[in-house]
Design goal:
Length: 581
């Protein structure tokens, strides 16, 4: 299949609005012609003065033509611009929707590697960069090339010699434009990449300002941002250095049409081979031709930019998605089977030959050292990642054969970094099930231990939590996230270190609430405190990407050395805390 180039992508995006764009171009062409014809009118006035014509009506009619056409020029331009912008803003909205829809369909690995600053840069700034091309360049460049072309034909028909000499500066100017475009794409891409890095650094600096202040790292952290800003500035300077000399030369030479027209016209006029009226017509029309041509040529800057912009947008749109069927499948039971599962990230093996069965309506806990792969198993079950090798089945169905929407409805996933929207507490919990009533939301909040602290907030359930839940503590955010997952009423619940931010006193309350809420469900717990998972039906010990052992708490204390060491360390830490009280 042939890969789409920049123009093909632009045509595809603009196609639903082709009538608006075609109409916009037509009005733009008429507007340009209305702007050029007054040059002909001025020619007639000058010729009339040379012929010493005394009829006022003669001059008034041409003055009226100039005035009316200049008004019509701006009127048609306004109509053209309105049509093209209206269509372009709809294109931009559709491209942004496609990008955000694409993000949902991508594996977590891609999103994990893409900094939020770079993502924002693509979805906001890059998509905005489509506007000059579709809203301005498409109608205006077309019109400003077509209008002068028609006038050139008229000039050639009037006197081919003057028509030819009026073009003398064009090939020279085009030589300089070609020089400007030689490394344009490379320099502009470098400029874009440096600004992308600046965006990433700015977002990182702002998000981490609390940590920066706490550890007195303001100078070094600011220096990183300052360096990124300097690199962005230097890339802009390099870009300008590589283009502006050529551009200035071209824009100086291009309109200097009289350099050819005046000497040649004067020579022919003195030899009696050119009439005065034709000479004047050639002078004024050649000036009239250059104005729209300069406008058209100025869009070459956008031609160089748009290729890089479209390339960045389409590289995201072309990313490989999590491929799932659309037709729902029948799930007979919620046993989860991992069969020889392998997973690699950035060419590094994370999980190796994981084979495991998680029984339906049971509590299965995963523990292990940091980086052992336990959270990765949870993400694979939730289809946030794709297995590299092997398979995961729910019941007797491979999860790759289950539509994403159906799978997402089956699984409630709560991580240690759950995001809360800048909305009310009530609406953040209701995200679990949008059709839930206020009373259903509050009932879940009571069962999950949220109700008491919510009622202490300024506006209770109507309190706005701030961006990313910033007005709440880490533990409060986690409890709301757990309530949201419980409201979803999914058959499989995954708690990926979901109580990491809660204090030990509240953790026991939350664990008790979770136990009640997940009755009759399959619960998977990624634990960081061993005391919270001792009653699990099965505990799976993961180490270095492999299953080290599995069994109950008592069985593992007897048979698994790693579990024994982890339990001993846990108890010693607990004793130390008791001694400190």
């Amino acid at each position: 299949m042939k890969e789409k180039n920049t123009s093909m992508w632009l045509r595809e995006w603009a196609y639903p609005h082709k009538k608006s764009y075609i109409t916009s171009v037509i009005f733009a062409v008429i507007g340009v012609i209305c702007g050029v014809v007054p040059y002909y009118a001025v020619t007639q006035i000058v010729i009339g003065l040379m012929q010493q014509r005394n009829e006022r009506s003669y001059y008034l009619q041409w003055i009226l033509v100039c005035a009316v056409l200049w008004i019509l020029r701006y009127l048609f331009h306004a109509i053209s611009t309105t049509l093209s912008h209206k269509a372009t803003f709809q294109v931009i909205a559709r491209v942004r929707k496609s990008l955000t829809k694409k993000l949902v369909a991508l594996p977590m690995g891609y999103l994990h590697d893409m900094p939020s600053g770079a993502m924002k840069n693509t979805i906001v700034e890059k998509v905005d960069s489509i506007e000059p091309t579709l809203a301005h360049m498409l109608p205006e460049m077309t019109a400003n090339l077509l209008g002068p072309f028609c006038i050139l034909i008229y000039l050639f028909l009037t006197d081919w010699r003057m028509g030819l000499v009026s073009l003398v500066t064009i090939p020279i100017a085009m030589y300089f434009f070609a020089g400007m475009m030689k490394d344009y794409e490379i320099n502009f891409k470098n400029y874009v990449n440096k600004n992308k890095y600046l965006n990433e650094t700015a977002v990182e600096y702002i998000n981490g300002i609390e940590v920066i202040k706490a550890f007195n790292q303001s100078a070094s952290s600011y220096q990183k941002f300052a360096d990124a800003a300097s690199l962005a500035a230097q890339s802009a300077i390099d870009w300008m250095k590589g283009t502006q000399g050529y551009f200035s030369a071209a824009m100086s030479i291009f309109p200097a049409v009289l350099v050819g027209v005046l000497p040649m016209g004067s020579y022919l006029f003195m030899k009696g081979r050119l009439g005065a009226d034709t000479f004047i017509l050639a002078i004024i029309l050649s000036l009239g031709i250059m104005t729209p041509l300069i406008t058209a040529i100025s869009f070459t800057d956008d031609i160089g930019k748009i290729k890089t912009v479209v390339s960045d947008i389409t590289s995201l749109l072309n990313e490989k998605e999590l491929v799932r069927p659309n037709k729902k499948v029948k799930i007979t039971n919620y046993n989860i089977h991992l069969n020889h599962v392998n997973f690699a990230y950035r060419e590094k093996d994370v999980l190796k030959d994981i084979t495991l069965t998680i029984e339906s309506n049971s509590v299965t806990a995963f523990i292990g050292p940091s980086g052992s792969g336990k959270s990765t198993i949870a993400k694979l079950i939730a289809s946030l990642w794709e297995v590299t090798k092997g398979s995961i089945r729910i019941g007797d169905i491979d999860i790759k054969e289950i539509p994403l929407e159906q799978l997402n409805n089956m699984i409630a996933y709560v991580s240690q970094d759950n995001y809360l929207f800048n909305d009310t507490v009530l609406n953040n919990i209701r995200m679990g099930r949008l059709s839930a009533t206020d009373e259903e939301v509050k009932e879940v909040a009571r069962k999950s231990g949220c109700h008491e602290f919510i009622m202490r907030l300024e506006s209770g359930y109507d309190t706005v939590v701030g961006g990313a839940g910033g007005h709440l503590s880490g533990g409060e955010r986690q409890r709301i996230a757990i309530a949201r997952a419980m409201l979803k009423d999914a058959s499989i619940v995954i708690l990926d270190e979901a109580t990491a931010y809660t204090d030990p006193e509240n953790e026991a309350i939350i664990q008790s609430a979770v136990a009640k809420l997940v009755q009759g469900k399959t619960l998977i717990v990624i634990a960081h405190r061993l005391s919270t998972i001792t009653d699990s039906d099965k505990i799976v010990v993961v180490n270095q990407g492999r299953i080290n052992a599995e069994g109950t708490h008592e069985e593992l204390l007897y048979s698994c050395t790693l579990y024994q060491e982890m339990w001993r360390a846990h108890m010693e830490a607990k004793d130390e805390k008791e001694d400190m009280k």
